[in-house]
Specification:
150 residues; single chain
């Protein structure tokens, strides 16, 4: 965490982050937190995880669509931390398509390049459907030209 002015619980927590993008394969990051902030907002925590995962090149997160995050810990007190409760309420899922974002995702990306190039979910579905139709047309054209050969 960049800012150490937060009240923290000294407890180890494992974090696994699966990043899904518009235009590249998924990436997985693992981290171990040695202290867990008690008074940090959920959006600030998730933003710090993204910044940690993409520390070498934040522009890699420009087309981030979704984060799926899993956490593991032994100290039961972690469950009582407000940001952890909020995290569990959304099942560790954060959606960054412009037509899927809520206040938390908007706070995460505010002032960053995170998800700045991410397409709307509807746009992605339409592109997928067009691609499927194009593939079907190519398959039909291939069958017709193969049939003409025989």
């Amino acid at each position: 965490m960049k800012n150490s002015n937060f009240l923290c619980l000294k407890a180890k927590m494992q974090v696994e982050i699966i990043c899904t993008f518009d235009n590249k394969p998924q990436q997985i990051y693992n981290a171990t937190m040695k202290v867990v902030p008690v008074d940090l907002k959920e959006s600030e925590w998730i933003k710090s995880l993204v910044e940690l995962a993409f520390a070498n090149d934040m522009h890699e997160a420009n087309d981030l669509c979704k984060l799926s995050i899993a956490i593991g810990y032994k100290n039961k007190k972690i469950s009582d931390i407000p940001m952890i409760k909020s995290f569990f309420e959304r099942n560790g899922k954060y959606y960054f398509q412009p037509d899927q974002r809520d206040e938390v995702e908007e706070e995460i990306i505010k002032g960053t390049t995170i998800a700045k190039d991410t397409k709307k979910l509807q746009q992605t579905k339409e592109e997928f459907e067009r691609e499927q139709l194009k593939n079907i047309s190519l398959q039909e054209a291939t069958r017709k030209s193969e049939a003409q050969l025989f």
